[in-house]
Amino acid sequence: MNESMPPTSNPDRDSLRLRHVLAIVLVGAALGVGFNALQLSANPSRALPWVKSERRVVTLESLSHTPLATPATPAVTPASPDGDSVPAPDAAAPAVADTAKRDTSHVRAAHAKGAAKGHGKPGTPATATTPAPARSASAAGSAPAASAGAAAAAADLPVIPDSREPIEVSLDAAQKFHAAGAALFLDARSAQDYAEGHIAGAVNLPFDDVFKNPALAKAVDAKGRVIITYCSGGDCDLSRSLAFSLIDAGFRKVLVFTAGEPGWVSAGRPVHRGAQP
Amino acid sequence: MNALLRWLATPAVLRITRVTIGVVFLVAALGKLGDLAWFAQQLHNYRIAPSWSENVFAIVMPWIELLTGLALVLGIRARAGGAIALALMIVFTLAVAAAWARGLDFRCGCFGKIGAAGIGARKFAENVVLTLIAALAVRRERG
Asked: Per-residue pLDDT tens for A117-154?
């Protein structure tokens, strides 16, 4: 640059500056540590723990005693293989859509046939054919069929304990809640992402909006159901952030569906487009 | 070019750059100190530091920023303050760039809850400009 300028590296001044830098950093660190120590002793809720404990990922599987390995199809839970199970298909039948009634008659026919042939115990044929109407109901995908599935799935729902931590749930559990209509699904993504495709029935509550206005989280009406938040899966943290906001707002059964919208889509579960749930 | 560099090193211009970056650091520090837990959460979102060390950064960083801002604004140990500001701005800019490149979607946490902007091109550009100002603030005064 300019020869007339003093050399840029002046050992004395540089070492002096380095000492000043160190002083600022060390005093800053000391203040931080001291301040946090004071906070810890006075008001632990406002202080940070010194070492962040790796947050234990609370998963539903780790909390619930209900095994989640049962098939996802909302099959009518077979009752005991005694005579009690015989009325099962008939009990399910009124809820099943007209389209599925043919299957119900099949069941009755099969039941009669089985009874006539005298295979096994009286209840066995009914139990064996029970999944038939349920399968056709879920295949039909119509609203009444869903309600039939709902009645069946409700019995199969995992029990959610009250928790101040969001509980992560798998696709399997999310599906069960969806089928039973037992959860309010909240889409934490932007309105634009939501409109491009979301879990059928999910309500859009962008975390960005809740972040700016926490009252939005308090205004959520889950109608006594659990809340399941989700976003884009993978690295997406919006669902978890929204879940914390909901817990701050007083909710105690907040689940995070970690696979998110992509996981839901790839599982072939119902998706809606547009601004409406 | 030489003239420009010399002009940028005049006491008046240096003072302006130092006060500017100093005020930015003060606001950032106070914003973070207002809600440390929130800042720690934002720090976690960057996924850069090992998880166990995040709280240490969250506890210490705002205070270093505060002292740096004070040094720059008050003109006490201003060059040392400028050096810290420059180093921190480079680290912050790299962190934002890394998060942006990985497509992480969260608030930057740069100023605590005050005007928390999303990670992206705009935040990156802001940081680059602030880094340049910090680079000016660290220069020695020339008459």
From this structure: 434 334 333 333 333 333 333 333 444 444 555 555 56
Q: Between chains, do B36 and A46 touch, taking CB under 8 Å as contact? A: yes
Q: What b/e readout covers B77-93, taking b as 16+ CB neighbours within 10 angstroms?
A: bbbbbbbbbbbbbeebb
ipTM of this complex: 0.89
Domain count, chain A: 2
**Residue A101 maps to a domain:** yes
Interface test with B, best of A3, A12, A20 (most B CBs within 10 A): A20
Q: Which of A14, A48, A50 to mutate to test the interface with B (most CBs of B within 10 A)?
A: A48
Measured CA to CA, the distance from residue B100 to residue B88 in angstroms comes to 18
CB atoms within 10 A of CB B112: 22
CA distance A264 to A143: 19
Per-residue confidence (pLDDT) for residue A202, from 0 to 100:
95
Is A54 within a domain? no
